[in-house]
Amino acid sequence: MRMEKRKQNKLAYKKKTQWFFIAIASLFILLLLGYGVVLLGGKIIANDEELILDLKTTIRTEEGEVIGTLYKENREFTNLDSLPDHVKEAFIAIEDRRFYEHQGIDLKSISRAVYRDIIAMSKVEGGSTITQQLAKNLFLSNDKTWSRKIKETMAALYLERELSKDEILELYVNEVYFGQGIYGIQTASKYFFSKSADELTVAEGAMLAGLMKGPNGYSPINHPDRALERRNVVLHSMEDAGFLSTEQRVAEEEKTLGIAVQEPKASDPWVDSYIDLVMKEASEKHQLSVEALQTGGYDITVYMDPEIQQIAYSEMQNDAYFPGNTEGVEGAFVMLDATNARVVSAIGGRDYQIGDLNRTVVNRQPGSTFKPIAVYGPALMQGDVYTPFTLIPDKKSEEYNVVNANDEYKGEIPIYQAIMESTNTSAVWLLDELGIDYSKGYLEKLGISLEDDGLSIALGGLKYGVTPLKMAQSYQAFASGGDLTRATSISSIENRNEEVIYESTLERENVFTSQVAWNMTEMLSDTVLSGTASSGEFTKALAGKTGSTQHTIVDGATKDAWFVGYTPEYVSAMWMGYDSTDKDHYLTGGSSYPTSLTKKILTEIDRQTDREMSSSFEIPENVEPLPEPIELPTISDITANYEFGGFSIIKGNLNWNGSSDERVVYRIYQESEGEDKLIDAVKGVTEYTIDNVWFKNNKYYVVPYDPNTKMEGTKSDSVTFSW
């Protein structure tokens, strides 16, 4: 009986032991599963992309002047190693004293918080560690619920497993919000104390750490007394944690807040156009979207010249230069360095703001400003056929159906004169001779691609038009001696790690010979002095071309007005007009207005800055100077008289009034039946002696001749010799 009872007891004990181990194993499995769930949940909740903080992008000039910032959150990143120890200790003391001891969750703090929540029957106190706060800020919302707290815990454990303590603290001090739209300790330090975070004192670091409890409620700007009280609480916590001695704490408490607010620089309206151009170039050429620029923490160095930009913006505000039948006449101005096409100024509108239409990159009909790059430059590249003094037609033609603006025609004129007077008939005829494909080939080299295939290209009558920036770039080929450099506003781009990911290099492409470029400079200089671009005043060297287009609805009105030109230092393009074309919007003036305004801007640059403009263009080596055009005189008062003496005994002397230009050749003709006889020619003098006239009744006349164009002028009256 006893044996049987012992067996039963032994069997019962064995079963209990088995169930005990099963329970232990089950609990272990449950714990493992729970831990796995926590780990898996943490990985699901924690998006690693969120560990890459949004940083502001800074745009600065080559001299280091910041002209703009782009951001969603106003934050600069700073490395933890650069922060003074007392700054890190301030945050640890007040937010998570056991930060370096726990594994992301402080059970003591949680127990205390849970107890108080139960007593209050609601979520009233947090026991969050720095790691938990970081997890909440990065991945979760601010609502006080148990589910959010569980997620926060899971994410915190994940962070502790993936990152070191210093990495977590570094992310924390860079991520946290300090009020006033400020994120991160570096930006906060600059804002509240006008200094970098690595220069913060003990008291200053304590004040910033104190803002974690409530950046708005403890703002040193709006609530200085509360901010001072909160700072001292942090100092006491630092003492309690052993980071400060009592003597140090008392000394720091005696200090004022020492606030030296550095308000963020408001965006200057005169830089907005340029910043927008930089953003467009960053997107198109470097694949940096607006989103990337607002979050990526890039440092972009640009070529803007602040003084020139301000002058251009200021002068563009003058209504006197913008003629229109109603308000709203707009304009665009862009200026490049003549040697390298770097954009030193860009005005996208008279009152431009970020997000507006940036008219420096909007296509417009270029009018006659297109002639030098589409027709005359390419033509002169055929130097064996066309020179500046080659005669081309200037007359109406039913074939081309084109007229000159002044409805005047000279029959034939040299290319030089056709450029200065901007004759439409000549440009169209010459383009037809050259071939449209030939012209478009040169335009492609200049960075201008066209769908157009008609002769209207010669007059700038294009399907889509050309931007002011492209027009300035194309003329840069003339200004730089025939070599084109693509226009750029960006010098370099650094990423958030201070690595240079782009640096501008000077790449030139030869388009025109230096001789052709110089010839164009000479002709366009004369166009400014005495041709269609003579409006306004600028006393230094300037070459350029005007352009205008007819309004499509209102007869006699102007739709687009242009001036594109260059000095030895800069190339510029200016457009004027309305954004919309209809019967109620048209210009009441033409290209004289952008011409005059450009000259005014250049004058002010020369006067207000140290960028002194050159008085003349310097002819390159191995280039022949281009003679000035010869103006043939109308010969009047021709006389013919006998003279006695010498071997011929009787001579005839012709005298006439001519030109002071000694390059003019005078041809002396004797009238004859059939074809008159050319008997001689003299250069630079206005008399001629004929031997052995012997009282013959012959008639003579004189014709001025241009040796450059090989063209004769109007002949004089015919005379006979008399006493």
TrEMBL record:
All residue ranges annotated as the Penicillin-binding protein transpeptidase domain in the record: 331-602
Gene this chain is encoded by: pbpF
Protein name: Penicillin-binding protein 1A (Germination)
One MF term in the entry's GO annotations: serine-type D-Ala-D-Ala carboxypeptidase activity
One annotated Gene Ontology cellular component of this protein: outer membrane-bounded periplasmic space
Domain (Glycosyl transferase family) ranges: 64-238
NCBIfam families: PBP_1a_fam
Origin superkingdom: Bacteria
Organism encoding this protein: Oceanobacillus iheyensis (strain DSM 14371 / CIP 107618 / JCM 11309 / KCTC 3954 / HTE831)
Transmembrane feature ranges: 20-42
Catalytic reaction equation(s): Preferential cleavage: (Ac)2-L-Lys-D-Ala-|-D-Ala. Also transpeptidation of peptidyl-alanyl moieties that are N-acyl substituents of D-alanine; [GlcNAc-(1->4)-Mur2Ac(oyl-L-Ala-gamma-D-Glu-L-Lys-D-Ala-D-Ala)](n)-di-trans,octa-cis-undecaprenyl diphosphate + beta-D-GlcNAc-(1->4)-Mur2Ac(oyl-L-Ala-gamma-D-Glu-L-Lys-D-Ala-D-Ala)-di-trans,octa-cis-undecaprenyl diphosphate = [GlcNAc-(1->4)-Mur2Ac(oyl-L-Ala-gamma-D-Glu-L-Lys-D-Ala-D-Ala)](n+1)-di-trans,octa-cis-undecaprenyl diphosphate + di-trans,octa-cis-undecaprenyl diphosphate + H(+)
GO biological process, one term: peptidoglycan biosynthetic process
Keyword Transmembrane helix in annotation: yes
Family label: In the N-terminal section; belongs to the glycosyltransferase 51 family. In the C-terminal section; belongs to the transpeptidase family.
Organism phylogeny: Bacteria, Bacillati, Bacillota, Bacilli, Bacillales
Keywords carried by this UniProt record: Carboxypeptidase, Cell membrane, Cell shape, Cell wall biogenesis/degradation, Glycosyltransferase, Hydrolase, Membrane, Multifunctional enzyme, Peptidoglycan synthesis, Protease, Transferase, Transmembrane, Transmembrane helix
